[in-house]
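User: Structure please.
Assistant: Input sequence and predicted structure:
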Amino acid sequence: DFWASGNKEEIKKKLFLKNIPTVMVMGGGLGLGGIRKIAYALLKWRDQVQVIICTGHNEKLRKTLVNDPRFHHPHIHIFGFVEQISDWMDAADLLITKSGGLTCFEALLKGVPLCIYQPLSGHEEKNCDFLVDNHLAIRLTEASQIDYWIEKLLVDAQDLSLLCQNIYLFQRQIDPLAGPRCIAHLLHEDQPIESPSLPAPAIVT
């Protein structure tokens, strides 16, 4: 499902969302990555932006947000673990997340602009560095920095458009058969292996 992007307007209608700028917030299956701070930072934009918050299996966080009357707004949608994440990414115009390999790679395949917030130390820091250095994502050091990018989304999305263009070029480098070919090579070391024409992406899962 992640190799093809659906029609954004149709997907929003399917998910009972309004056809307005949509920001999605994720923290992986465990609901980490400072979701709470980002959620509260987005409250001021609730009349102009649709906000989708996925807390994963962090039920405590989901209940905290759901029970806060400030989040009781038709433009704010709070979920736990989401199965059809492909559709929700299609609906998103901007994704705020930590830099887990799976989520970031899915977002790159979907062409969703990425803001990285509070990556875990270790492999997620390396993912963040790779994404930012290759102009595929923006790093937020403070939750308040999201205001700048929401304004860009609403008023002048040129920087986000450039990000999308870079993501599109990155997508063209992805070789889905690189892994199977490497496995086949290990099983049959006497057989030559064809190298992909472009380097494989370096996202660490």
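Residues 158-171 form the longest helix (14 residues).
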